[in-house]
């Protein structure tokens, strides 16, 4: 049975119970995501499930999130739909991971308790492009004119520089 996600993840405790948690957040619930996205009211669906692989606590999860970010080319809004999925195993030491299924991403030295919001934020931010851009060439038209003007001006600028050197 799915239940709401507690604010604090208690890793080994949840993993040994094998709980599945699901919750619909808003972008505003994630402070670090809110600083880069402008759509603070958009819904964020999160489902995470806990399991033990032998002695190793694992978290499998998926997030669905729409983000409105600043295009790094034209600074206008660029809309992204992201569905990060993750399958993480929390190891006490590297040897512990040797028997683990290779489909798990491993994390060392995990605390027993950590913030659910911060954990989900990290998984979302990994999937956000460093420099979000529109798929179309949003600035190509505006780009052409200044470049043409520059080309016209350039020969004179070079002449001026040459004269200064003489
Ligand atoms: Zn753009």
SSE layout and pairings?
Blueprint (H helix, E strand, L loop, with lengths): L1 E2 L4 E3 H7 L2 E7 L4 H4 L8 E11 L2 E15 L6 E6 L2 E7 L13 E4 L4 E3 H12 L12 H26 L1
This protein binds zinc ion (ZN).
Zinc ion (ZN) binds next to loops.
Q: Care to describe what's here?
A:
It is a single chain. This protein is α+β, with helices and mostly antiparallel strands and 166 residues long. It has one domain (2-136). It is built from 4 helices and 9 strands. It has helices at residues 11-17, 31-34, 116-127, 140-165; strands at 2-3, 8-10, 20-26, 43-53, 56-70, 77-82, 85-91, 105-108, 113-115. A hairpin with a 2-residue loop joins β4 and β5. Residues 71, 73-74, 76, 78, 133-134, 138 line the site of zinc ion.
């Amino acid at each position: 049975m799915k239940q709401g996600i507690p604010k604090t993840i208690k890793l080994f405790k949840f993993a040994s119970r094998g709980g599945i948690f699901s919750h619909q957040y808003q972008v505003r619930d994630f402070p670090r995501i809110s600083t880069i996205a402008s759509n603070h009211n958009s819904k964020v669906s999160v489902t995470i499930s806990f399991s033990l692989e032998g002695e190793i606590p694992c978290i499998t999860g998926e997030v669905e999130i729409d983000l409105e970010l600043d295009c790094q080319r034209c600074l206008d809004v660029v809309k992204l739909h992201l569905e990060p999925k993750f399958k993480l195993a929390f190891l006490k030491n590297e040897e512990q991971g040797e028997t683990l299924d290779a489909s798990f991403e491993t994390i060392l030295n995990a605390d027993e308790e950590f913030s659910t919001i911060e954990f989900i934020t990290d998984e979302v931010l990994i999937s956000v492009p460093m420099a979000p851009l529109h798929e179309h060439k949003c600035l190509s038209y505006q780009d052409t004119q200044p470049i043409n003007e520059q080309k016209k001006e350039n020969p004179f600028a070079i002449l001026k520089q040459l004269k200064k050197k003489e």
